[in-house]
Amino acid sequence: MIKIENVSKTFTLHNQSSAVIRVMEGASLAVDPGECVALIGNSGAGKSTLMRMIYGNYLAASGSIMVGDLDVAQAEPRQIIALRRRTLGYVSQFLRVVPRVPTIDVVAEPLLSVGVDRGTAMARAQDLLTRLNIPQTLWTLSPTTFSGGEQQRVNIARGFAHIYPAMLLDEPTASLDAMNRETVLSLIEEAKSRGAAIIGIFHDKPARDRVADREVDVSAFTPKGQA
Amino acid sequence: MTDTPLLRIRNLAKFYGGRIGCTDVSFDLYPGEVMGIVGESGSGKSTLLNAMAGHIEPDGGEVLFNTRTDGLRDTRQMSEPERRMLARTDWAFVHQHARDGLRMSVSAGGNVGERLMAVGARRYDTVRAQAIDWLGRVEITEDRIDDRPTAFSGGMQQRLQIARNLVTGPRLVFMDEPTGGLDVSVQARLLDLLRGLVREMGLSAIIVTHDLAVVRLLADRLMVMKSGHVVESGLTDQVLDDPQHSYTQLLVSSVLQV
Questions:
Q1: What does CATH list as the number for B1-90+172-258?
Q2: Residues of A with CB below 8 A from B30's CB?
């Protein structure tokens, strides 16, 4: 479902005398449907960078990034927009929303944007918010004023609302208590069992051991001759 | 995914004497897409918007629009009546200053109804009912329908301008700094409203702004302008998070963190 071949990444800092920083070379990895691959490596090794390249958020300098039958490294913006809408989900570490939009609508939005009818979308959003222990009294409020843990759970509910065939999870269990962590892990297991290909970053080792089928150490993709 | 763009711009250029307004601008906009145009003051973004919308005469290039009846047509080759019809039906233009887009001496309901009547609506009761419906959608209560925009706050005027523009069900909306000059809570409300309308009506929109936070929330795609040229374009979050051009890097790193 996801197949990455020989991907490299550089950052050019034009405003610092055009310094070119090579951050990744020869990155390759493949994930089958129903499989979960955990990216490991020290902080700064490039786990999030690789994930952002798969999502089309960072431009790859070379190589190919196939998600389904689309090469994200070559695709036009509108192809990536369509891919993100239907095929590729991403749960980031931060919730970014339009202020003033109620939590329930934030969670239902990915479903509405693929044309699910409002009743079904709302029912699914309510179900997810209930499972993630967001009190019903908060559903009609904007999540911008929620605590960090609550925002993270709203973000997860939103990320799991639509059933994506491929998912990227950036620290989905960080800042969650034991009960909510358990819920998130079962959401991931459910996604796997219905065939989603998942790439995740989990600093929480027990969580990683439970949901991940394989580990890929991204420090192997650090350019040679550099620390 | 449809393959015919709604709007196709090719080599659009506008010069002010020897100075460049904008030049070498080409892109395709597809149905349902929202594109942001950012750049500092004087970078040519408003010139470009006005040249596309036909408010100023470009000096070169093509503005092709996918018309309902004849497919892609160069709007610069259309007759004046055809262009006016397009501006009243499939196109809409939201000005930065609401007073440029509204009739200040006509009631709120009249402002919305006028655009309907311009496309042939004649029955007073249906026009008024539609005006009330649209005022409701932009959160203006029915009891204000007979008030003039002069009696409205800045945020209400801007919402009224949006209602006036969208009542005829346009397919393409040009917006020039739609949230400029509004305080942040009103701005948030307007952003929420615009996003909902874009999704429900399947609109395409081109939004000129200097506010990077606004484009991040509203636009799928982004074009960065400097000195009349497009220096970078792509997915909004990609351009903002991994900017390639030196000017974009400067622009992104200049934003104050809240």
A1: 3.40.50.300
A2: 78
- The verdict on a CB contact (< 8 Å) between A15 and B242 is no
Respond yes or no on whether ipTM tops 0.85: yes
Model confidence pLDDT, tens digit, residues B43-80: 999 999 999 999 999 999 999 999 988 899 999 999 99
Asked if residue A187 and residue A116 are part of one domain, the reply reads no
Could you report the per-residue pLDDT of B103-120, keeping only the tens digit for each? 999 999 999 999 999 888
User: CA–CA separation, B192 vs A60, rounded Å?
Assistant: 33
Rounded Cα distance between A51 and B126, Å, is 53
In a domain, A92, yes or no: no
Q: In chain B, whose CA is at the least distance from the CA of A81?
A: B220
From the CA of B122, how many Å to the nearest CA of chain A? 34
- Cα–Cα dist B160/B155, whole Å: 9
Q: Using a CB-CB distance cutoff of 8 angstroms, which residues of chain B are in contact with residue A78? A: 1, 30, 33, 220-221
Q: Are B258 and A144 in contact (CB under 8 A)?
A: no
Q: Other C-beta atoms within 10 Å of A43: how many?
A: 7
Residue B245: closest C-alpha in chain A: A14
B202 vs B206: CA distance, rounded Å: 13
pTM for the structure as a whole:
0.89
